[in-house]
Amino acid sequence: MAVRWLCSLFGKPFDGGKRMDHGGPQDQQQHPMEHQQPYHPQHPAMMRLYEVQKEVSSLGPQVCTFSGLQNDREYKRMERELTQLLLQVDQVDTEGKLELQGARKRAAQEVEGLLRYLEENASHPSRLAIEELSIAARQLVDERVVAPQRAGGVAEINDELVDALQELVLRLTQIKTEGRVPLRKARYRALTRLCAVQDVLEGRTPQQTLSLPLSGDTHEAVHCINHVMVKVSMARSQLLALLMGLSGRDSCAHLSRILTELQVELDALDVSGNAAIRNYRKQVVEEINGLLKHLDLEGEGDDTRRYDLAQNNSIREIEAVRAHVSHLREGVLRYCLMGDLSFRPKAELQSLLTHLDQVDTAKNPCIREARRRAVVEVQAVITFLDLREALASRHPGPDEHPSHRAVWLVLGSLSDLQAQVLGFDGKRADKSYIILEEMLTKQLLTLDAVDPQGDESTKAARKQAVKFAQNILNYLDMKTDEWEY
């Protein structure tokens, strides 16, 4: 964007004669006398605009990939420099020449566009939501892990902490970025750090029960390994603080040097002839390697392929499966509409589930969520086929319990509603969505009103029907939540 504006200052062609759009229709209209004006490439005003163009070309890529907030130092720097450029453009003396006035106007629009883009992304509701969740994660890790360890205490690493962090990860994956590069980048950076914290904590949890360090009397190298292990424990706390932005002095590079030095110190030890000591050293080395792999996050997110998951091979696999499921779903619904149950691609659907299970998520929560949603889509078609088959093969006897019969009547209605949900392709604001939601809720109320009268089979059937109805509602909700990678 920013690197092109000068090419169109005079309506000149760009890239094979394609015209750039720099404003509304009025901006693109050429003055009737403008084509008669001479082109002055050496005019002082034009030379000044050339200089501005060079600066804009430098700032443009920075603005377009900036993923921070308005109070960040980088934001203030770019805002200040763009504002100065805007003032410089405004001060260009065009001497009343229409050609130069048009060039100045388009230059001002380009700088204003960058300023607007910078502000919109830094103050976007999704960006603020990302920051809010990042702050919540930071406070959680600080209160439970970092602060207690700094005070000489023990970190509170338990299932409650792990579950709370996982909930924050899930909420981050559900934030919509509208395809904006800065928002995708911000979400990706927040997720990678939080997932790294999860990985560090999960790797540390079992070590709290190990009978280490070993006694120094066992081998002369044990004392050195014990000393290194204490430093590794401190480094782990520093790493968590770095990942969550709780350390103002340390840096990833500094911590990496410390851990590498510890590795060198361990490698220099002579532990030959003692398998127990070798295993002890190996365990500590593996602990260090586990920490080192998280220390490349300072540049994480700079590569577009990292946060633009549309380019990710795993996502492409998942999307291919979803396209296949969509084709099978359409076929199933088409045959069912004709009352024909001969089309039952359950084996093919099961093979798709197996394929999804083998997709490599690389511990990326967004890819995991994409895979989970694809699995739900496959399972929805399978359960629809199962219920249709059960309804078709059902032959109730005269002694069937009335309550049991009532449950099956509801299941028949649910099957018809599920067919509509499977074929639904609208939004939550659509009238058809509201009707579907209301009808499914009514079926749940009907099931709630069924009195089993002590019949155990009716109790089990009603429980299964309630779960089935809730799954349909959840699937309808998933189809319309506008989730994105």
Automatic annotation (TrEMBL):
Coiled-coil regions listed: none
Domain of life: Eukaryota
SUPFAM superfamilies noted in UniProt: BAG domain
Entry keyword set: Chaperone, Repeat
Annotated spans, Disordered: 16-40
One Pfam family in the UniProt entry: BAG
BAG domain boundaries: 51-122, 221-299, 348-389, 403-480
Chain intervals with Low complexity compositional bias: 25-40
Protein name: BAG family molecular chaperone regulator 5
Organism: Characodon lateralis
